[in-house]
Model the fold of this input.
Amino acid sequence: SSRRRPTFLGAGLIWTATTTTALSGVVHNRPRRSSSHRGASSSASHRPDNQADRLRSALAQRRAGLTVVLENVRRENVALVARTVEAFGVPELHYIETPSMHAHLRGFATLTPAAKAAQLSRVSRSATDWLRVRHHTSPEACVAALRSSGRYDALIASVVPPAAENNSEELPGWRRPVRDLYDDDDADDDWAAGRVALLFGSEGHGLSQQLLDLADLGVAVPQRGVTQSLNVAACAAIVVAEVVRRRVHSDRDPVLDAVERQRLEAELLSSAGRPLRFHNKAHVKHERLRQKPAYKAEIRHEEDLWWRAAVHGDEPSRCVAAARSSSSSSSSN
Done:
């Protein structure tokens, strides 16, 4: 049989098998994931029987006074940010597509709203299905919508950190002091604990001058590398995680009130009777394996044969082929 070794993940213990194959005199170890694997950050306990109850349970934990704005960011990065935002309980996502940047967006901006929603749902693994996604055609329109909603007090722009060699707090396009993301010495004046909208631009172009002029504060992620460059999705994940941490630490992390929660539920909960889609890759794979025990047993048997062939120096494919022919002949008899 294949060798099995324990793998420690947190407080749990999962047995994984290692299958060894001899190819051209080289032994390759191929770790095989256990069928009990649930994903690095998935929660097996959070599975209410009723899918509508599961949605209401998630909406009850949605954070108030926190949103993310993306400007001229490509579809793939919008989807990645959407997954991060949804996982951290942020209820809505805004993105701006200015006509002058349509070529940069590789055709995504020219799609119909329904086609955009379908693509984002697919690429984000349905994360955008559980967010209030708002599209805007200009920075001014987006900021006007944020201000008029009354849910946000400040616009926080993510900017490039000042160059270490000149030690300047002034950046091109940004004419005000820049705050370090991790500078939280003044608890009474902690911008992260307030009602804020976090602004992010694309890697190549950054935030437009119009949006920078409308922002209230510039925040930079400190970097010590040579490239001084982060993917926008990675930058958004770092900033959102730090903001959530400080909100929780300061006990100023309110959730949506009942009225807003019901309004969001009415927007997201399907009224057509179709089943809700909740994506969890590890859970989906686990359920598929449970439904195919014969296939699962066959795969394990073939892995065992490859291991035996490697140990005894025989040709692996010959052992597998012989086992298959033997199995088919016995079933026909």
